[in-house]
Design brief:
Blueprint (H helix, E strand, L loop, with lengths): L1 H46 L4 H11 L3 H10 L11 E6 L2 H4 L3 H12 L12 E6 L11 E3 L2 E3 L4 H23 L1
Parallel strand pairs: 1-2
Antiparallel strand pairs: 1-3, 3-4
Helix pairs in contact: 2-3, 5-6
Bound molecules: FE2/S2 (inorganic) cluster.
The site of FE2/S2 (inorganic) cluster has 11 residues, from helix 4.
Length: 178
């Protein structure tokens, strides 16, 4: 009986040690991924998107396959590998917003900007995206412009918001020129 309980203790220790190791490995991987995401965000903030040369450099620096890095980039919809507009307009196309006429709102925005989802205006002011749930289902239909969330959007409200950003964009350009 004593032998059995000794064995059990040993086994428990082994299991404990194994899970600690596994846990540490997971924490390490998590930290690495967090650092990688931070770097990707920094690059995107600097260039407005993730240029190919920067990704190649980052993959070499971190000693990870380029395909692995591209996998991460394509998993997060907020990373862009092509230049995008100053204002990213996202409209939720998921069910709750869909029931609240998000399709109509998308049509109005699309017509007003003269672009389809996935496209950028020629002046590089807006990129339009139709995306899955933006996490504000109770306020649908919902759009975001960069990180700002707008709920209970109507067609008129959507146009007002676009106007506001057009004005901001023009002011910014004027400031740059003067
Ligand atoms: S369904 Fe539109 S924000 Fe969730």
């Amino acid at each position: 009986m004593r032998v059995l309980s000794k064995k059990m203790e040993q086994l428990e220790d082994e299991v404990k040690e194994m899970s600690e190791k596994k846990m540490l490995k997971l924490i390490e991987e998590y930290k690495e991924n967090e650092l990688l995401l931070d770097r990707l965000h920094d690059i995107q903030n600097k260039f407005g998107y993730l240029p190919e040369e920067e990704l190649v450099e980052l993959a070499a620096e971190k000693e990870i396959p380029k395909a692995h890095l591209y996998g991460i980039v394509s998993f997060y919809s907020r990373f862009y590998t092509e230049p995008v507009g100053k204002y990213k307009v996202r409209i939720c196309k998921s069910i709750s917003c869909g029931m609240n006429s998000s399709k109509k709102i998308l049509k109005v925005i699309s017509e007003s900007l003269g672009i389809n989802p996935g496209e950028t205006t020629e002046d590089k002011l807006f990129t339009l995206e139709a995306v899955e749930c933006l996490g504000h289902c109770g306020e649908g239909p919902v759009i975001t412009v960069n990180d700002k969330v707008y709920g209970e959007i109507t067609e008129a409200k959507a146009l007002e918001i676009l106007e506001e950003y057009i004005e901001r964009g023009e002011k910014h350009e004027r400031r740059k020129i003067s």
